[in-house]
Queue: 4 jobs
Job 1
Amino acid sequence: MIALLALGCTACAGSRELALGDYRETHGPGVVLWTAKHLRLLPGQAFEYDMSSDDLASGKNGAGTYQRQGHTLELIFNGQPLVRASTVRLHSLPTASDSVRLTFAVRQADAWDVLQPAAGVSVVVRDQQGHPKAQVQTDSAGWAEVLLPRAWYPCTLSVSSIGYQPLQQDAPPSSTAYQVSLQPSAGRLYDAGSRLEFKVVRQTSSQLVLRQGAEKIILEKAL
């Protein structure tokens, strides 16, 4: 009977592993200054954790392994950054004989990794010595266009925005439409060996609720 009771108490403590998936913090209405926490739980008790903020200097991220003892969840960082490279898709456009037309539709990932039209992104064309030849910025729809005279070739182009991974390439020989997706820069890292501790309040099939000190953190599981 004693052995059965002990086994029952162990089951009450819950599994040492949490359900795998992407968990993202939700906020109620009226939040002005905020942070958004993103916890990705991977096989083998591995994790990726990102805390982004509307104050770019305050964001931190890292990866590692976690331990769970009862209701305590501890993240142990390995010092490796979470860097997701910006990407681009290209489509050919009709080309004139004396110039090359480049169009840019730029989106950037928000704190939820949702791509949104990116206004104010710089598109710069440089010659082989690195001197700027042309510079434009995307409008409110994330759109920009630049016309390159053939005399400028060879040249390079870059697409950049503060807080995001820049994209740099040689300018194409013919008119091209660019679809650019900018990903956040790595930001500050949690040092190797550093730890974060949370209390697991509740976990359901769609939600993970944690507490860190006085702060209650509600993380919704991405579908």
Job 2
Amino acid sequence: MDSSDAVAMILALVVFTGVLFAPSPVPPDAADPVSAGSGQPSDVRDLSAVLAGIEERVSSSHPLNLTPGSVPGTADEPAVPDENKTENETENTPAPVPEYDDDELARLVEENSISLMLLSVQNVYALQAWDEKPAKESAAALRTFAADLLKESSALRISDDRSGLNDSFALALGSYVAAGEALQGDAPLNRTMVDTALEANRQGSNRLREAFGCLQYPVLEAPGEIAAVNLSLPRPAAPGKELALLQRYIYEDRSRANDISLMLESTVGTGMYHLLDGSGEAVVAEPGRMFLLVEVKATNLGHRGENRVYTVRTPDLQAFTLHYRNTTYAPVKLSDRTSLGEPYAAATLNRYEKKAGYIVFDVPAALPLDECSVRVDLGGDASPVWALGRTLGSAP
């Protein structure tokens, strides 16, 4: 958010707070006889004088944006493969990773909140002055603007991490819509209409303040493990060059705003595991086969661009495939709780957060791991490959 916008918002909040806690408006019929004929109190000032400081500061930067932004489309949930496949049978093209519109929601809040607040200030000021025409005109503008934003935001696909921001913003918009609806119609102002609109404006202001609180990003210190990562290393690896276990692959997220680290750490084979769902049921590999566990770790290395996207999405399970000569194996989907440990699954990571888990392949027990590799399709030309027979630091 620009500094001029921040200053304008603070000034608007000061004006709004003063108006809200001012004495209750007095209907025209209860006013002093000298000013009763004018239809409003004698000490009413022009609203432009009240907002003059705000207009000067905002005009030095850029005009307020009263036009709601566009809403991107949403993606369908990807399907997870249940069976192993070979390259001869089907092409291993992973479904798109679920994307969320968290950054679009943050943009809507940042770019439209000042305009919402100023419209609300105008409405409250007119209500306090018992000035019917400006009160109804500002209420209609506030209602239309808030309703349009509510329609846009409700169409966005929001992650659980941003549910608080989404809820607060939606409640604020709903309150502003209610304030505008309270003053609809041709009926003259009365005490019930004024009190209802003032209360709805107050609730909208409180909810909008909560939404801004959700936009504050904590200043985090990079852990030593991440601070030690050399981000100047060439990326991606040369085509056809296989990585070793424990070797880190660094790439940009789709917004090109964050760096992501992906690493395959170890492999182990087993013929059986147990479900930890209370049944204790044993899952045994078929004769001549085994479960190959590959440990994966993904890390959000932090923000690097000008975009306000701070979270990343790790690769989906089906992006990983095991290769041996001309045969390709797809991962087995595990239950959430097994004796193998935490299964790997796609996740949304905040700055410096990491996600580790096992990917399991159902393979022949005699499969020579020295000749196997795991490929990860990250979309586009990014498809790093790890050789399971080599570990970082060992001889090639």
Job 3
Amino acid sequence: MEAQRANIEPDAAPTKASFKKQRRKIFQKGSKGSENTVAPPLPPRDPTATGPKPTRLSTVATKPKDEPMFSDIHMMGFPGVAPYRRANEFAITAEGFIPLCEKEYDIIAANQPYFAKSVAKSVWVYYCVMSLYARLITLKQERGDSPYEEDTFAGQILSGNHNLPAPIDAYIKALGNVIDTSALRYQLHMPVRPNETGDFGRVGRFSHWKYMSLPSPRIVSQRICEDLRITALPGIRDWNLPEDIRPAEKGAGLPTRNCLGWARAATLTNDQVDFIESTGIMEDVFPSKFRCFRYNVDLFEKISLALTKTEEKIKITPQTRKNAEGALALVCWTSIEPTVQENSPNVFYAESRNNQVITSSEIDARQVLASLMLSYRVRKDQIGNSRPYCIYSFGNYENVPDTWHDTRNTVFNYGRADRWNVTEYTAPYTDK
């Protein structure tokens, strides 16, 4: 019993000598050498290592906690949801392009008069429209759905040997795919393409909106021929579209400026006539290499050369193939102030009244201003009793058919633009 008691009794209190001995033992070096000896390096890390693997994988989903709805629900094979990968598409209404080209022509003519002495305004618009179509083709090339003829045409325009003034280049360069403020990606996809004769078919309820969304190469080239006609035989400056594409509706009247590319015939100078006719173009003849674009190589090259000579006073940039990314200004859209006033067929719809830029989300003011000036996407509306967006006059716009009115915003609403075409943020009505 005494021996057992001795085994369970606590150790005696340590003496001062034993404490020093324990202290030396604790701090004693385990190996020879300096205490600052460098530790051996760690083995190299395996780049393919994925960390420890679980030994048992769960095959049953963890039940939601604190969710009374799902306490007793049975999935019965229902898979749930998956990402929806359809591409979001949208389109532009390019009615701001022709006014921009004509204003830039006036600026060039004021700074370099010899340019306008030989290059007529109709010829200049033709040159810019060819560049616009080349840009749209590059976007199709990104999607892989551009035909060989279009690729060849765009390759000649965007060879780097031709130039454009900086403002027009900025307009064209802004056309492209967009990531909006919701981080959704949209592809610019135009539902409008010229046919083999360079137009969009006979004007009617299913095609009139095409003519006010993109300039028809056939109409743009016809404008040059009409200038030659009125110069040779002065008379009425208004002219109708070719008979095979005129509207079948009675009382349609004549085209308006909303028919992009159309304008009243202008009298040319002798130098301008010589400039045009030297390329083989006559009043009723327009030689072209790619008929759907009415591309006259000689005319395009001569305009490009004349523009190059203005670079001392006009900022110009070479035309090359650019990436497919566009500007956020394409997200904005424009509404025209519903002011009842006298309408003129020689004024563009977007130029006739004050404009208001509208967005579905808050956007940088610089993008809003660019949208105001360039009118990338314009909604057409009736104003009073008139429909001044129409491409034909129809009695001062007051007799436009309802069937035309119903399809007026086909391009504006194309694709998933409905997400943008709502009114959340607005700028004041402003004169362009």
Job 4
Amino acid sequence: MIFTILVASVALCAAGYTAFTLLGGREHGPARAWMGGSLFCLALALATVAPGINDAVDGLVGVPHVSRLIAHVLTVWAAIAVSCMLVYWTRSPESTRRAVRRRLLLAGSATVALAALFLIARTPAAPGDWFATYHRRPPVMIYMTLFGGILTYALIDLARLSLRYATRVTTRPVTRVGLRMFAAGGLISLGYSVTIVAVAIAGQFGIDVGTAWTYVTMTSQLTGIGLIAAGSAVPGTTAAASAALRRAHDAHQCERMELLWRAIVQAHPAIPRRQPHPTHWWGRGLAWTTSWLGDGRSLSRRVLEIRDGYLQLTPWFDGAVRDRALQLGQRAGMTGSDLMATVEATVVVVALDAKAAGDDPVDTGRVEAGGTDLTSEVVWLGRVSQALARSPVVVSVRAEQAHARAAPANGSPAPSTTSE
């Protein structure tokens, strides 16, 4: 019971995801639609025969065991639908339509034949498995043979086409894994269909096979359906997880640049496409979420906005400030990229202060590009932003410049910012 509900839930979730990708415009085409229809049929078939639900369906229709007929018809259509999906993937456009029509004709004929045999059998309500209880009746024997035979054909077709297409997919390993899971699910489900045919034939010859075979059919059916449903979900969920991780990484990088970006755009309100959120925790969380939903667009936009701010600050970049920050950083034991990020952060923040205070441009310094592409530029600006937030060198040089700016107004000499 629990296993049935679990497998039905997996199939339903996979069908829902497929429908979401179709309606959301992410993926189009009849193959995807056939996949969604197949998974929906599988989920509905398992739900129809679940204890409690089957009795409700029988009572609603007013025909004993009609839930079994519904489940069997849905199973046939589910297997044929998967086969049609794979036909679209493996055949040429000229032969696809003919192959799909042939399979749909088979499924439609099987539906009519199974319904007719079910009505002819007239099996009264009884507890237990319908096949196990009535498999000796001739109409039920024929029903079982027909259902098992069609399902066997569809499952072999499913496994064959899945393995054929898997050999063609050389650049998408996750899709290849999903196709192999399809094939495995089809082959395992053969234990269900072949056993049904064997029991029906044994019944025609008066051989008593007992009821132990029902456990074989149940196990192989649920395991096979579970593999098929999981195989259909593997490519999509893997791609979605990869995209989510990528977005989370981009959002983290945006967060690392937040302080530098905030300082730039607050001094130049015309630059950003969105204004900074508040600095308290929920504001920062909203900024992270906005970056995540941006799918990388916020990341590149943030780099461009910071660089636009740099261009407008260029007249206030001071070479003396750069030399002073370099001296203090080396004295503090900084080297390499950490030292240069600290120097850049110092030059930028002092330029922001000078522009805000109305100082005359000096235009004696410059800031080199930190990277050769978007990825390296993002890493570099994140490092500059962290230096702006944490480096004592930035605080020290900024304080010196503020004191030098205030000294003339107080009539005292300004301290030198050149090397000591």
